[in-house]
Write a structure and sequence with these properties.
With 324 residues, this protein is mainly α. The protein has helices spanning 30-53, 57-82, 90-104, 108-121, 138-149, 153-166, 174-177, 191-215, 219-234, 259-264, 271-276, 298-305, 317-322, and strands at residues 131-132, 310-311.
Length: 324
């Protein structure tokens, strides 16, 4: 089974039967990934504690900024788990994904389903946040686009997770699953996924109740730290696809970034390579560049996004055939 196929019918902890075809000599770096998850969690707890102890507003802001970058690595690890690339053992992969999801404040099972949907719908009409057709409302397109760039994308994820868990019928509502503000991938969530989503939400709540109680966290500091993360994560969330080809696999970029940020993102700027080989661990993504691949600079490409949405061209042929 290929990593991009729908896996919603399988239990999250019972995926040993899945055979993921990985390139020979490129195994998942299991020990390194486990170490990164542990270091990330320890650092996250430490920063939450430190931010709640500082009296200086500037000090809390600096800690919040540091936390926002740490959580970028946390999401990169979570992303690896959605592709079963965080650990070759299915149960280890699931629980490591759940742990990273706890600090992302979203259930791993929901992120996995919707991200798999992203790989199936990339650059189709369901996923062209940067483009618009003549019949679209340009005003609403701009609202959606600039809300993402200014940090309002991430809060929608935990809020929607709670709504889906409490009121499952919201999954099919136009507000959450269609344009201009919804995400078509949420329709892939099944009743089986909902069970795990609820359990993972309860685990996230329990962990933070425990952290607030044991570490005497201040909610104002924690809120500021997640606000900084929300902006840092949301504003760069679509950079790997913005204004790329209208092709499901090739519709992404291998961007040029500095070495420090490349490590923090776990080479997440190599998004085109990732879409070509979603079964490949982050560890091996850099370097496989074709002669005709464009490689825009990360910062310059980020700034291009602020110019706003552009007119859309024809959708990918695959999406027309599939009726997406």
């Amino acid at each position: 089974m290929h990593a991009t196929e729908s896996l919603a019918q399988l239990k999250p902890t019972d995926r040993e039967s899945i055979k993921i075809d990985r390139p020979e000599g490129m195994p998942v770096p299991n020990r390194l990934n486990v170490a990164l998850v542990l270091l990330d969690v320890i650092a996250a707890v430490g920063l939450l504690w430190l931010g709640s102890r500082l009296e200086s507003t500037l000090g809390v802001i600096l800690v919040a900024i540091a936390y926002s970058y740490l959580m970028l690595t946390n999401y990169a690890l979570l992303h690896e788990a959605t592709h079963d690339n965080l650990h070759e053992n299915a149960r280890w992969n699931y629980w490591l994904g759940v742990i990273t999801g706890v600090f992302f404040l979203a259930p791993f099972s929901m992120i996995r389903v919707t991200h798999q949907g992203h790989h199936q719908r990339n650059r189709t009409d369901a996923e062209i946040f940067d483009l618009y057709y003549p019949h679209d409302s340009f005003f609403w397109k701009c609202c959606q686009w600039y809300a993402t760039l200014t940090g309002f994308f991430w809060p929608c994820i935990p809020v929607c997770a709670v709504l889906f868990a409490i009121v499952p019928r919201t999954i099919g509502m136009q507000l959450f699953s269609g344009p201009p503000l919804g995400n078509a991938n949420v329709k892939d969530i099944t009743s089986k996924d909902l069970k795990w989503i609820r359990l993972e939400l309860l685990l996230t709540l329990a962990v933070f109740v425990l952290l607030f109680g044991l570490l005497q966290l201040r909610w104002q500091a924690v809120l500021l730290m997640y606000a900084c993360f929300s902006f840092n994560w949301s504003t760069r969330q679509y950079i790997g696809h913005a204004f790329s080809k209208r092709e499901i696999i090739e519709g992404a970029w291998n961007l040029r970034h500095n070495k420090l940020m490349s490590l923090l993102l776990l080479h997440g700027e190599w998004d085109l390579n990732h879409h070509r080989h979603p079964e490949l661990s982050w560890y091996y993504l850099p370097g496989d560049v074709r002669d005709d691949d464009e490689r825009p600079g990360y910062i310059r490409h980020y700034l291009r996004q602020w110019l706003g949405p552009r007119p859309a061209g024809p959708p990918p042929r695959q999406s027309q055939d599939a009726g997406l």
